[in-house]
Design goal:
- There is one protein chain.
- This protein is an alpha/beta fold.
- The protein has 2 domains: 2-171 and 346-359, Rossmann fold (3-Layer(aba) Sandwich); 180-342, 3-Layer(aba) Sandwich (Rossmann fold).
- Helix content is 39%, strand content 17%.
- The protein has helices at 17-31, 69-81, 98-104, 126-142, 151-161, 180-191, 211-219, 236-244, 260-269, 284-287, 302-307, 318-327, 337-340, 347-359; strands at residues 2-6, 35-41, 55-60, 86-90, 110-113, 145-148, 166-167, 198-202, 225-230, 251-255, 272-275, 296-299, 313-315.
- α6 (180-191) packs across α9 and α7 (211-219) packs across α12 (318-327).
- It is globular.
Length: 363
Amino acid sequence: MKIALVGTDGIPARYGGFETFVEQVVPHLLALGHEVLVVGSSVGRRETRPATPGLHVANLPLRANGASSVIFDILSVLRSARWADATVLLGVSAGLFVPLFRLVTRRGRLVVNVDGLESRRAKWSGLKGHFLAWSEAMAVRFAARLVADNDGIAELLQQRYDQPSTVIAYGADHVLEPAPEEAATRIRESLDLMPNVYALTIARVEPENHIGLMISAFLKSGQPRFVLVGNFRHSAYGRALKAQYANEARITLVDSTYDPLLLASLRSLCRVYLHGHSVGGTNPSLVEMLPYARPILAWDCRFNRSTLRESGAYFDSAASLTAKLDAGGFEAMVPPADVRLDQAYRWRAIAEHYCELMRSIGP
């Protein structure tokens, strides 16, 4: 089968969860005997990928995200439609055009991953929010098959649109697991950190991820250090937080880094991981913590409880987070092995599930 993956910045991954999804799932699709076309963006992209049998890459001269994302998605689908036997559209920003995409996609094999139902995010308000909600509704109604990456998203799709979906999560078995000595050296030299004395958060800096709330709650606790890695420079909210806490000795704000060894070292040696996301289904930053067997304190919502299979521990306010940080008992917050090693979070199983879904559409 010829499979097109569209709607992302492309590969090699340099942006977010969908890009990592594409980069990790492609080798497994190839190993299963399929050809794959990845449509991405050439804007600012200098890196090249070695030729890989069965993999085709087409980069368009448009940004995949932001104001041009709708046009980018339309051109991506049109670029792949004649070639592909099945198309996977990642995201719903161009959802208004999904009825057209179904018509031009061979055999109507159009699978749409709705991501985290983006219209719920605080940053999309006013006209943009209404447009995204409309796009979301059209994508949900007219896709041949819907993918939800979390049971909570699947429930919302059923409740809001009366539409069934297939739950296929995000993978975690691609993360690095450095030796403790190597990890300790890395965090000491990069951020002057000692192992097992700091709390950690890795997140996009957005209000619904409760970054400010977690910092405030942490400072009221007796814990010694909180390290947050995120895109602080890219929004007024992030810049304000960085300015507010620039001189706070217990808070370390690190601008986004895609250094896999540094991220792995931070994750593997943190005392506790704080996850404040309240929307977005299976957040990659949460599922990618699972292999490290570290304590997890997450915002109490259906998405996080689904991802962690009710393990870990939860907070729903600054006061409850402070209380749990001061109470200790972090060992009980480590998700058990059956959650950390769940096949649902392995890329091979994810690739196989997508293939089964695509084959279920038509002859």
